[in-house]
Amino acid sequence: MPIDESMVKNIVQEVMAKMNISDSPAGKHGIFKEMNDAIEAAKKAEKVVRNMSLDQREQIISIMRRKIHESAEIMARMAVDETGMGNVGHKIMKNHLVANGVPGTEDIKTIAWSGDRGLTLVEEGPFGVIGAITPCTNPQETIFCNTMGMLAAGNTVVFNPHPQAVKTTIYAINMMNEASLEAGGPDNIATTVEVPTLETSAVMMHHPDIPLLVATGGPGVVKAVLSCGKRGIGAGAGNPPALVDETADIRKAAEDIVNGCTFDNNLPCIAEKEVIAVSSILDELMHYMVTEQGCYLASKEVQDALVRTVMDEKGKLNRKCVGRDAKTLLAMVGVTDEPEDTRCIIFEGPKEHPLITTELMMPILGIVRASDFDDALEKALWLEHGNRHSAHIHSHDVTRITKYAKAMDTAILVKNGPSYAALGFGGEGFPTFTIASRTGEGLTSAETFTKKRRCVMVDSLCIR
Fold first, then answer.
1. Is 48 helix (H, G, I), strand (E, B) or coil?
2. Does the keyword Transcription apply (predicted)?
3. pTM metric for this prediction
């Protein structure tokens, strides 16, 4: 019998009730009251994982993939119900993407040299217990990506999740441990605390048994991790610009940009946050956005109301607006006559406009006019704020694309496609939800969570 909307909602509510923090059952896999206990349990599990073969680790990861597929819809609804952010359908797609595409043990490689003086191997080994901080924007996806990659590399992981997504995170961590146990592996390959706080985060970051920290979130948490004196991988903020010049397929650019901007209500850090368009094609671009792509053209009055609603006087975002859809945002400012298919709010403005210069994580897309390509490039560089995270371009001029790519110097650059192509949706490559632009690792995978070791056999095993 097919599962209808009401049945799924009842299932989600039942799961959420069971995961109520105050009633969290004792012995839930990977969940502890104290951070020190969570770290100790992960340390014991790491001693087992370290000695497992790659094949054994891959068996666990295979079961993780199956469980993610099976729970993709429930997890997506749980995340939206708990955080109030995002789009259920898109989160389901992201869960399936993670299950299908996150690299496993095949990402762990060995290189070798041989010569007159013998044989040298360079192998990728684990760090041990990794400490990870995760966001509320992509709560379960980040847990899945990190756990699979870190386990493939031979590590275990202790999470300090965002408090706004703790129930979703606990459910995901429990599921990862169930996969390990089902495959004959140890419990507590991933652990966390029932009530994550700044204090539990500090304990994790400064614990002597954690040599590597991975932060996925805003600039504050990344700065804290990189300031604690340990090796840190920082996946911080971005404000990705999308440049459109006069050589582009303007109609397709409009479709790609709006699709990317509205995916999961603009929560992904790689999503288009603003557009810089050459003046000669800007009006055409906006025409296609409004007439074919479900965009609402905001008047000056609506723009001003949005500024007052989505951020405070200091420019801090209103949490109640982050990850909401366009129709909800318009209703918040009293607009109720928008077309039924509205999915994005657009307007033309200067690059200094607060809805353009700020990373909103909402389907609000400011469009900046540029006199020519060089002016557009200059404005895009300014708007990206030096995060070196993501940038996008729509152009058929290879020389301009090359110039843009070199100047932006971002971890991700998407050319003539929607931003999510960078994660394997309609583009080549593996997905991840920890994109370490701040520290230079880029899109993280199992190999990222290893350290290289050189093993030298002198005057032997060279048989040529």
1. helix
2. no
3. 0.91
